[in-house]
């Protein structure tokens, strides 16, 4: 007697709403590629992690705040501020907090935008190189 056959899997539930590990990896890959290209273009570039962690009875918050860009850059020759919000190539959405933060950056003369690949990021670097 051989092994019993495995029953076919059925999916009757709803799809997951949160990004799975593969989607997070895709965004991280885009972030790494963009950061490498921006640094190669002569910019100073820093990763901005935002969040909070409970330490004892207190919450310790870190990063520039909710909605701020994933990469914060200083673009030569004028030292202009550049914020790059990295999104995966498909299915990503800008949150209201991210839109508010981007509007504030633009209002004060900085450059910011959502990028899904290196070429979109380099367009924003070129914009930041020009005087406002």
* CATH architecture label of the domain at 42-129: 3-Layer(aba) Sandwich
Number of helices: 3
Structural class: alpha+beta
Total beta strand runs = 6
Plain-language structure description:
This protein has 132 residues and is of the alpha+beta class. Helix content is 33%, strand content 23%. It contains 3 helices and 6 strands, in the order αβββββαβα. The chain has helices at 21-40, 96-107, 118-129, and strands at residues 44-47, 51-55, 58-62, 71-75, 80-86, 111-115. The strands form 2 sheets. A 4-stranded mixed beta sheet has the order 1-4-5-6, with helices on both faces. It has a two-stranded antiparallel ribbon with strand order 2-3. The model is unreliable at 6-18 (pLDDT under 50).
Question: Which secondary structure elements does this structure contain, and how are they paired or packed?
Answer:
Elements (H helix, E strand, L loop, with lengths): L20 H20 L3 E4 L3 E5 L2 E5 L8 E5 L4 E7 L9 H12 L3 E5 L2 H12 L3
Parallel strand pairs: 5-6
Antiparallel strand pairs: 1-4, 2-3, 4-5
